[in-house]
Every structure is written in structure tokens, then in C-alpha cells.
Amino acid sequence: MNLAAAVIEQNNLIIRNNCPDVQSHAGKDCCKNARNWLVAMARSFDFSVTDGARLAGPGWLKTFYEWGPSAWPVYWCEAVSLPVIDCGLFRAFANLIFAAKGIECFDAQVLRLQQQSATSHWQKRWDGAANSLPWVSKNFVYHEICAVKTSDSRCELYDPTDGVWLDADITKGHNGHFAVRVESSEVLQWQHQTLGGFQWVSL
Fold first, then answer.
1. For residue 6, what pLDDT is reported?
2. DSSP-assigned beta bridge partners for residue 164
3. Residue 39's pLDDT band (cuts 50, 70, 90)
4. Which long-range contacts (CB under 8 A, 24 or more apart) does 44-48 make?
5. pLDDT of residue 35
6. pLDDT of 188 over the 90 cut
7. Number of Cβ atoms within 10 Å of the Cβ of 60
8. Which of 6, 61, 92, 177 fits a 20 to 30 Å CA distance from 135?
9. Positive or negative CA dihedral for 101, 103, 107, 111?
10. What is the pLDDT of residues 111-169, one digit of tens each?
11. Which residues, other chains included, contact 131 with Cβ-Cβ below 8 Å and sequence gap of 6+?
12. 5 falls in which pLDDT band (50, 70, 90)?
């Protein structure tokens, strides 16, 4: 098994064993109200920043929330009030916002190249946080994003943590993404890459 395949397998274990979704309190309105608040905030920012463009990503999330460790499991009513959230919550928030605009999107993950000086810093920060999820390797990181359908067979990948749309050609060097997984049974074309089927695709 080559290095890329080994990292993909490691991150498959993360997905299978450690990645719950945001939960809702049964029989209570608190989590529904939290989701409604998030959608209302997104609509306000959409009209003030993007003139209501339907496919505009919720870039305001990265200025409203700080990126950092989150404790899991977490409920919607707790999550929206956190000052610091991890990429899993950024992804969950963005997916909810896209869905509220009638845009179909899927959970997705990317493996990224990172310098060891950065990963060692992040590892120490996450090690000090209770119930946070493992995502850092020596020179790679696991990162959660959104696969946003733009037509019946095409998608774009949105990173809500950084507030940017990803470029399929950025595959090398610091922050280069070398593998992508989309949680969809559909086959989707992302720029010149074919994704889907719940499979990791090397770039």
C-alpha cells in the first residue's frame, strides 16, 4: 500500500468510527429554533453581501465563528451558540444553508497536504480538547467540506471553514488536496474529476 492509500484507509476509519452528525433533541423546539436562526442569519448575509445569489457560499460563517476543536456529540441548540467550531460543524451549517435555498448538497471530505510544523501545532491543540475528533496525520489532514450540485450531473466543492470553492488542479504543495470523497451514490463531475459512490478519489 502506498502512502496516499494508507492515509485514505486511516481516514476511512475516522469516518466509520468517529464522525457523528449534529443531533436534535427529540420532542423539543430548541434545535428546530436553532436551525431556523441559522437559516435566517444566512438569508440576511446573502442579501447584504451577495445580493441573494442562489449559489453563493455562506462565507460569513468563517467571520462569525472561530475555527478550532469541538466536542462531539453536539446538539443543534448547542452548536449554533459555540464561539469555536471545527470543520464538521462548518460543513453541517453550510449544508443546512444550501438546503434551505433548495440546493442539493452532500457531505464530503478531502485529504490535504500540510507542513509538519502546522500539523504538530494542531495536534497539540486538539489533544487538549475533550471529546474532539482525530483528523491530523504527520503531513496530511482530514477536512470536511460540501459537495454542491450545480446541475443533474455536476457539482462544485465548497470549503465553509475557509469560505472558498475548491480548485481541482490544486493537488500539490501546502494545502493541496490529493483525495476527495463525496457521500453520494450518484456519479458527479467536479471540474475534470469524477466523484461519488462514497469512494475516495485520488487527484
1. 58
2. 159
3. very high
4. none
5. 96
6. yes
7. 19
8. 61
9. negative
10. 888 888 888 888 888 887 776 666 777 778 888 999 999 999 999 999 999 999 999 99
11. 71, 72
12. low
For the chain, what is the HEC assignment? CCHHHHHHHHHHHHHHHHCCCCECCCCCCHHHHHHHHHHHHHHHHHHHHCCCCCCCCCCCHHHHCEECCCCCCCEHHHHCCCCEECHHHHHHHHHHHHHHCCCCEEEEEEEEECCHHHHHHHHHHHHCCCCCCCCECCCEEEEEEEEEECCCCEEEEEECCCCEECCCCCCCCCCCEEEEEECCCCEEEECCEEEECCCEEEC
Query: Whole-prediction pTM value?
Result: 0.89
The grid coordinates listed for 188 are 458527479
